[in-house]
Design brief:
Helix content: 10-25%
Number of domains: 1
Shape: globular
CATH superfamily: PLAT/LH2 domain
CATH topology: Lipoxygenase-1
Order of helices and strands: HHEEEEEEEEE
Distance between the termini: 54 Å
């Protein structure tokens, strides 16, 4: 193989790898550190009204193993502060099965408007395919779309939520 041919192969492989990385991170936005600005942890008085966090697990298509029985943790960054990692209580193993829509209420300090949502799973997790997450309070709903597989316990970051003022979030 000539030097010119070798250079072309290396360039083609590099371009394919860059395209793959751009596609796999598109909905997650830039790196976690870029979006998680230095906000203080939420530590004021807890709200009397809960913040409802919901997750829709995918369930369409040929694959039937979209769900997980693993422990799932979420963290929300608002315009005022960032929460600690909150456990999406999975006491019932069916919580995150294929096609389910599960909601958990949290009584946490005021976070402001949700701008970044993170999710991570137990290190000993099986694979999981969450479609989207919602954050609901004060008759508002913010939807963070994910729609991809989680294969590891590394935190996944979502930004640019879709906002609804109807107080109702989609469950489909």
């Amino acid at each position: 193989m000539t030097t010119k041919a070798r250079e072309m192969v290396v360039m083609a492989v590099t371009m394919v790898m860059m395209m793959f990385l751009m596609t796999t991170n598109a909905s997650e936005g830039p790196s976690v550190h870029h979006h998680l600005k230095k906000r203080a942890l939420c530590n004021g008085p807890r709200n009397n009204d809960p913040v409802k966090v919901c997750v829709k697990t995918n369930g369409y298509g040929v694959i039937t193993a979209y769900g997980t029985v693993s422990q799932v943790y979420v963290r929300i960054q608002g315009t005022k502060c960032i929460t600690t990692w909150l456990s999406l209580d999975n006491k019932h193993s069916y919580h995150f099965e294929q096609s389910t829509y599960v909601c958990i209420n949290y009584y946490i300090p005021a976070i402001g408007t949700p701008v970044v949502f993170q999710v991570k799973v137990d290190p000993n997790t099986d694979h999981w395919y969450p479609k989207y997450f919602t954050v609901q309070f004060n008759q508002h709903c913010w939807t963070f779309y994910f729609d991809r597989w989680i294969y590891s316990s590394l935190p996944r970051t979502m930004t640019n939520p879709r906002h609804s003022m109807t107080g109702k979030c989609s469950t489909t």
